[in-house]
Specification:
Number of domains: 1
Distance between the termini: 57 Å
Number of strands: 5
CATH superfamily: 5'-nuclease
Order of helices and strands: EHHEHHHHEEE
Radius of gyration: 24 Å
CATH architecture: 3-Layer(aba) Sandwich
Length: about 170
């Protein structure tokens, strides 16, 4: 995989969630892969949601200092800001696909960052929104499958070519 991958809030939270060990392992594997390959993308909205949920709803919760430190590491991904371009695109997404406003903002942020894949558990797995494919990190394996095709050399033609035979080119004039 060489395309940018947008990561939603739930993936970041599951990577820290002690109560969901299976999902924690899968979320961490995805995040490790995205860091290693430098393919991870997210948004300021996602980071804001992560901070709120990690400090208030995650059990055991994170301290505000720990959550802030984690958010600062994701600044390296160049999170999509909440700006005019995002709001305009989110409105277009909302109108076209009939998503909630918050989901429209996440999809719009993925589109504006040229992501081909969005990892989330909140939208229908396999849905495509204008070039961004939604996949659950818990059903899609981190490893990219090997190519399933092989190039077969062309067979030598059994018949002579059609048309007039070619004459050798005499070369440049003297």
């Amino acid at each position: 995989m060489t395309a940018a991958v947008f990561v939603d809030t739930n993936v970041l939270l599951y990577a820290r969630d002690q109560g969901e060990p299976v999902k924690r392992v899968r979320a961490k594997a995805w995040l490790d892969h995205l860091w290693r390959e430098r393919l991870g993308r997210t948004s300021i909205q996602v980071l804001s949601e992560f901070y709120y949920n990690a400090t208030r709803k995650l059990h055991p919760g994170m301290t505000s200092e720990d959550a802030w430190g984690r958010i600062q590491t994701y600044f390296a991904w160049g999170p999509q800001p909440v700006d005019q371009a995002l709001l305009v695109r989110a409105h277009e997404v909302e109108q076209r696909y009939r998503l909630s406003w918050w989901d429209s903002m996440v999809v719009a942020a993925a589109q504006l960052q040229d992501c081909e894949l969005m990892l989330t558990e909140d939208l229908q797995d396999g849905t495509v929104f204008g070039g961004v494919t939604v996949r659950s990190p818990f059903t899609l394996d981190v490893r990219e499958p090997a190519a399933a095709y092989a190039v077969t050399p062309l067979a030598k033609p059994r018949h002579r070519p059609r048309g007039r035979p070619r004459r050798p080119h005499p070369g440049p004039p003297p």
